[in-house]
Amino acid sequence: MKKKIAKQLVKNVSELRRDPVSGDWVVIATGRAKRPNTFAQGHQHDPAYESKENCPFENPQVSGNDKPILVFDHKAREMGKLSQDWFVQVIPNRFPAFAGPSVKRYVKHVGPYTVLEGRGSHEVVIMREHTKNISSFSSLEARAVIYAYMARFNILSLRPNVRYVSIFHNFGKEAGASLYHPHSQIMAIPVVPPDVARSLAGSQRYFQEKSKCVHCEMIAWEKKDNQRIVFENEHFIAICPFVSRAAFEIRIFPKKHESSFKDMGDEEIGKCADALRITLGKLEKALANPDYNFFIHTSPINIESLESHFYPHYHWHIEILPKTAIWAGFELGTGIEISTIKPENAAKFLRKFNVS
Ligand SMILES: [Zn+2]
Ligand SMILES: [Zn+2]
């Protein structure tokens, strides 16, 4: 009896896993393990938030938005001008976080602080239907979204003093989407984001030590280990990362080593669109339509110094984070996130759900 109690006392309740790229530790709290289906809480229905009635994206221009910068129809064909057949349109954000010409860097110093004017741009990629998000798109419809991202990414990258182009999609109130209507955002900003800077430094360190891309190494190991793959096609692979920061986190990597999002060909764009819509579809079915964020991580840009050529060690990818937990005191105070399901079990659960 005594022996049994002693054994229970030393039972592992959690394990810490370290990300070789960011250097961050996460906690996989297996001792608090829940069954995969207990994460399927779906999002909290809020009729006023979800209502189509006052939605400004039903008819963006009638709601006072500028005419679109770019329009695609549902067959992913670029349209010369806006018509009734639009499926995806890109407009300038009416309430931008970054705006104005960026011909030079507007820096000043205030006491011990550095202040940089928020020059850059902030655009919105609006999907046509109020209740149809990327997970329910056809292959061509999803392709229109990736085309829109990439076309804007390539244009904004050429602007002076843009250091990073951030592409992200918030879905649901819990994920911080102010509007329910499906939309993504694209921001061109004058600094390299800290998260990206740390990952660049981490992947460079690995490259210097081993002369290999850490991401390519991780992908090769995931294929061999075969426990955390959610979906794969010819050009892309979706996995629940070994070092997941949240339950059901998913990353989608191009199989071909590329540091920047900018260089995809037509075929790859199609496969990327499929990987994204199918992965989101699995997540939606598995977790009963959860709120989520996804974003693209790619190498920074510095057109003045052609800096984007300086990151051969980086490997662009998409990160999907469903809202399965909130940051509380431990996470905020330590920067260590706790995930309550093993990524191996999350991936196994996601694989069960078929999306065509
Ligand atoms: Zn709407
Ligand atoms: Zn790579």
Ligands in the model, by name, code or SMILES, are:
zinc ion
Name the beta content range. 15-25%
What does the radius of gyration come to?
A: 21 Å
Q: Major sheet: size, sense and barrel closure?
A: 10 strands, antiparallel
Distance between the termini: 53 Å
- What is the CATH third-level topology name of the largest domain? HIT family, subunit A
Would you list the SSEs in sequence order as H and E? HEEHEEEEEHEEHHEEEHEEHEH
The tally of beta strands, per DSSP, is 15
Shape descriptor reads globular
**What is the structural class?**
alpha+beta
Write out the strand line-up for the largest beta sheet, numbering strands in chain order. Answer: 3-4-7-9-8-13-14-12-11-10
Whole-number mean pLDDT: 91
Uncertain stretches of 5 or more adjacent residues = none
Could you name the CATH homologous superfamily of the largest domain? HIT-like
The CATH architecture of the largest domain can be given as 2-Layer Sandwich
Helix segment tally: 8
Number of domains: 2
- The helix content is 25-40%
CATH class term of the largest domain: Alpha Beta
Protein name: Galactose-1-phosphate uridylyltransferase
Pfam families: DUF4921 (PF16268)
Active site: 183
GO molecular function, one term: UDP-glucose:hexose-1-phosphate uridylyltransferase activity
